[in-house]
């Protein structure tokens, strides 16, 4: 059973986390390049928020937004 868990350790530490170890060592040379994963996630989240806000605006302009406070029975 010990070999099984050591195999899992080898998989994660030496194979799957190798790109992240490379980025960590790269941080001393260039902070921006080392944080490319973070920049990519921030761009994806920002574009999703812009898309979501545009869709909310379109629904509100079409009159599909129900802003009545009695829309739910627990708000009466």
TrEMBL record:
It comes from the Bacteria. Keywords: Membrane, Transmembrane, Transmembrane helix. This is Uracil phosphoribosyltransferase. The chain crosses the membrane at residues 32-54. It holds the Pfam family DUF6341. The lineage of its organism: Bacteria, Pseudomonadati, Bacteroidota, Flavobacteriia, Flavobacteriales.
């Amino acid at each position: 059973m010990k070999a099984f868990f050591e195999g899992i350790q080898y998989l994660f530490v030496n194979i799957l986390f190798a790109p992240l170890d490379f980025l960590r060592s790269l941080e001393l040379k260039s902070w921006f390049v080392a944080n490319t994963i973070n920049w990519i996630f921030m761009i994806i989240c920002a574009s999703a928020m812009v898309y979501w806000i545009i869709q909310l605006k379109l629904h509100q302009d079409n009159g599909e937004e129900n802003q009545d406070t009695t829309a739910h029975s627990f708000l009466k």
